[in-house]
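for the recovery benchmark. tokens below, seq after
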């Protein structure tokens, strides 16, 4: 299949076969745009920006993405319409969804882009957010745990500020302290279960990619009412809750090295890729194979690691991977899509 400059399309309908789809072309012709469109069309949001207007072609007021495929052998068609100064409109099999976010519960897409290295090299908040997204995909009954905890935490912080300002008394804190303790313990347990599911396959996938001794661990303990009450003085002084899973971290190691502090960029890239492949494997084991979108991952891998990655994705579900040339993938893709410079007629 040959496409003329993906950046120029307002609507791009792709019927991609099962297996590995390799998207090739020179830099700057729109390969990443194609992956971004697939992500928006299956998840309802861009992995690059939360500003929907940035997804619309320059000089245009609207855009549309249509993705057709199958979900558990059942045909599925999603249409996402974007208009400047309006909210997204999403249809699935002709029915309007209440929100674009609902797509995440219907379809599963995992994406690797170069900026995903922040999962390893960034601060704790990035890793917490990553694990919470994985939690929502792997432990569906607990998908609301991060949001419920966040809401209780916001109420407690607001109550702390009212007490500190003298417009409320400490007794008003008690209900929110109990909720933060209860919901925080639930969230910690769900995060720990998520890592328990991911770690064996993460270790295996990292080893295949040449990252030996990889491990994941949760750094934090469930908050208790007693521990929260012991910190009330400090919390009042600072105006926020200083204990709980909103401050926890996830350690990603290779041997005894914390890859955030002592890992090379290449090792950090391998760790993020191994996390992605591990989650894809868990989802496949549960009968919900994910669509993998791998952007510019091959250029930073040596020949042995490219071969290992090609062998691994060939055994899974559908993968769309970008490269500047077909020779970058040491395997025969199920489909080759060539993006060429030009403007759509």
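predicted aa per position
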């Amino acid at each position: 299949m040959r496409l003329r400059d993906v950046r120029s399309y307002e609507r791009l309908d792709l019927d991609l076969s099962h297996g590995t789809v390799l998207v090739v072309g020179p830099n700057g012709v729109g390969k990443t745009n194609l992956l971004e469109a697939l992500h928006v069309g299956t998840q309802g949001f861009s992995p690059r920006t939360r500003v929907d207007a940035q997804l619309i072609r320059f000089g245009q007021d609207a855009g549309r993405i249509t993705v057709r495929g199958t979900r558990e052998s059942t045909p599925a068609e999603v249409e996402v319409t974007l208009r400047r100064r309006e909210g997204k409109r999403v249809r699935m099999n002709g029915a309007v969804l209440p929100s674009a976010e609902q797509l995440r519960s219907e379809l599963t897409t995992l994406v690797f882009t170069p900026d995903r290295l922040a999962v390893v090299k960034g601060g704790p908040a990035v890793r917490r957010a990553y694990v919470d997204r994985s939690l929502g995909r792997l432990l569906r009954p607990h998908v609301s745990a991060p949001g419920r905890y966040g809401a209780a935490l916001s109420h407690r912080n607001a109550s702390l500020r009212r007490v500190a300002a003298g417009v409320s008394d400490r007794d008003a804190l008690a209900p929110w302290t109990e909720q933060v303790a209860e919901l925080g313990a639930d969230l910690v347990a769900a995060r720990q279960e998520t890592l328990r599911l991911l770690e064996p396959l993460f270790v295996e996938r990292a080893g295949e990619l040449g990252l030996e001794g990889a491990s994941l661990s949760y750094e934090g303990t469930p908050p208790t009412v007693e521990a929260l009450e012991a910190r009330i003085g400090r919390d009042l002084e600072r105006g926020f809750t200083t204990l709980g899973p909103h401050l926890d971290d996830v350690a990603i190691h290779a041997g005894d090295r914390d890859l955030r502090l002592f890992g090379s960029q290449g090792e950090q890239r391998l760790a993020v890729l191994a996390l992605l492949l591990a989650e894809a494997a868990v989802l496949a084991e549960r009968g919900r194979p994910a669509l993998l979108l791998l952007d510019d991952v091959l250029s930073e891998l040596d020949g042995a690691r490219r071969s290992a990655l090609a062998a691994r994705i060939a055994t899974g579900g559908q993968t769309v991977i970008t490269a500047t040339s077909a020779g970058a993938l040491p395997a025969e893709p199920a489909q080759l899509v060539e993006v060429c410079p030009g403007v759509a007629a």
